[in-house]
Amino acid sequence: MDKYNFKVVAELRSDLTENQRLEVSSKIGELQRRLKIVNIDNETYCKAPPIKDYDDFGAVTFFFSALKDLKEYFKRLEYYDLWEGDKRIEV
Amino acid sequence: MRSDQVRETDPWARGVVLSFDFVTKDLKDYYSKNSPQGAYEVLKRFLLKNGFEHLRDSDYKNKFMDKVDTVDLLYSFSRDHKWFPHCINKVNISPNITALDISNDIKALGDEDWKKAQRTQEKARKNKHLYLNIKI
Prior knowledge:
- The complex is a heterodimer.
- Chain A is α+β, with helices and mostly antiparallel strands.
- In chain A, about 35% of the residues lie in helices and about 30% in strands.
- In chain A, a hairpin with a 4-residue loop joins strand 2 (about 35-40) and strand 3.
- Chain A is globular.
- Chain B is α+β, with helices and mostly antiparallel strands.
- Chain B is built from six helices and four strands, in the order E-H-H-E-E-H-H-E-H-H.
- Chain B has helices at about 25-30, 40-50, 65-80, 85, 105-110, 110-135; strands at about 15-20, 55, 60, 90-95.
- In chain B, strand 2 (about 55) and strand 3 (about 60) form a beta hairpin.
- The model of chain B has no long low-confidence stretch (mean pLDDT about 90).
- At the A-B interface, helix 2 of A face helix 3 of B.
């Protein structure tokens, strides 16, 4: 795994119905496919390798912006800029 | 720099400069066949409404917005203007770095005697050509 500079931590709410869970998971999956985002553990997302010269900024930040549209489904939605030490907590 | 002053090390501290460029053919296909360049005006209006200042061509500056909020803004623009992501050639977000204009200062260093001598020489050269032309 390349060293990543930006990551999103997104954890779904545990009280979602099966349909809601499927729907939101499908939307997340579609965003991952378009932006080439990988899920490196249960809740952490970053850009798929190769990562060069902070070029993971756009994909991860757009991913975070898009997930904010689905914020009601998350119990945790956070953005980390490991390059400059910034952190945004949406949920 | 005074010893009690702290140097600003965060390059993004003064905001962002956003630069973009479209592919004209894609604008014709997805924005408007007859007035593709109107897309620049649409994005310009949106950016000005959201606190950006027009610099030149397709460069815009916002002194108060950071890079993440800029992406957020572009995401919302893309959501409302479906043609936008399909027409982009390049979008760059860079730190708004203060430009130090030293043009007048370097002009002030110009050697006026040297400049005068150059002008005199040039005048003499022109006069010589004129004289030769008349003689011929």
